[in-house]
Write a structure and sequence with these properties.
The structure is a single chain. The chain folds into two domains: about 1-120 and about 265-275, Diaminopimelate Epimerase, Chain A, domain 1; about 125-260, Diaminopimelate Epimerase, Chain A, domain 1. It has about 280 residues and is an alpha+beta fold. It is about 15% helix and about 45% strand. The chain has four helices and 18 strands. The protein has an 18-stranded mixed beta sheet that branches. The model has no long low-confidence stretch (mean pLDDT about 95).
């Protein structure tokens, strides 16, 4: 099976072109290729295949095999792969995901994609849409106790569930301890992606991520979008920010049309053959 390893700010996935390759058990394959000791090493598996209502379709699987609805860093890499491997003509593409069709715009330089701007759609804020069991119509700057620690959280769905906790001393957050407690909390029946954010100023935010099914990652594109929305909703930031992630920077804008736009890089690392 031919594969390509790609990453967006260090959020790395194994990509398989299923226009030409058949994948029988994606969850099993995701677990195998994602293992950083015995596999290729990645945060998960993304399949690129045909769509009846877009240029292509992406299917995302987390490192432990669970299905993910959407991946902001992953969709930028899908766009780069599609253009550079002649699956579609850029610079504008439509990509079907589990949460609908997303439109992307590729910045090009001598035939290569240097960055991708993604229309992530409008955020969902109703508690039932996250979903969360917190008894509120919307969870905005809501006090909770997770693992004996008090947080103020804002919940945002970008098609997948996110919880954002703004903290003053980001370096003191024990991500390996706090992340799983948020992910597995009874407050989030479908589990959740947890993001701990420090506001540097109204246009710059530093973020660390714990992703549902993958753990600590170097970047989470949809999570950075959720942080932008949460910052604006709570009055901490403007509606356009630069998000500083462990893997690099993303430009995020919650525009006047209620859509969130994410701009960032995509990198192809290498290709190879996986012995099925």
């Amino acid at each position: 099976m031919r594969f390509t390893k790609m990453h967006g700010l260090g959020n790395d996935y194994v990509y398989v072109d299923v226009f030409t390759t058949r994948v029988v058990e994606p969850p099993k394959l995701a677990r195998a290729v994602s293992d950083r000791h015995t596999g290729i090493g990645s945060d998960g598996l993304i399949l690129i295949g045909p769509s009846t209502n877009a240029d292509m379709r992406m299917e995302m699987y987390n490192a432990e095999g669970s299905r993910g609805e959407m991946c902001g860093n992953g969709i930028r890499c899908v766009a780069k792969y599609a253009v550079e491997h002649d699956l579609a003509k850029g610079p504008r593409l439509t990509i079907e995901t589990d949460v609908g069709v997303k439109t992307v715009e590729c910045a090009m330089d001598h035939g290569k994609v240097t960055s991708v701007r993604v229309d992530m759609g409008a955020p969902l804020l109703e508690a039932r849409s996250i979903p969360t069991t917190i008894a509120a119509a919307r969870v905005i700057d809501h006090p909770v106790n997770i693992g004996g620690v008090e947080y103020r959280i804002t919940c945002v769905s970008m098609g997948n569930p996110h919880v954002v906790a703004f903290v003053r001393e980001l370096h003191k957050v024990d991500l390996v301890e706090a992340g799983p407690r948020f992910e597995g909390s009874a407050l989030f029946p479908s589990k959740v992606n947890a993001h701990f954010a420090r506001v540097d100023d109204r246009a710059h935010v530093t973020v660390r991520h714990w992703e549902r099914g993958s753990g600590a990652t170097r970047a989470c594109g949809s999570g950075a979008c959720a942080v932008c929305v949460a910052g604006a909703l709570t009055g901490r930031t403007e509606r356009r920010i630069t998000a500083f992630l462990p893997g690099g920077e993303l430009d995020i804008e919650w525009a006047g049309n209620d859509h969130v736009y994410m701009t960032g890089p995509a990198v192809e690392v290498f290709s190879g053959d996986w012995p099925e």
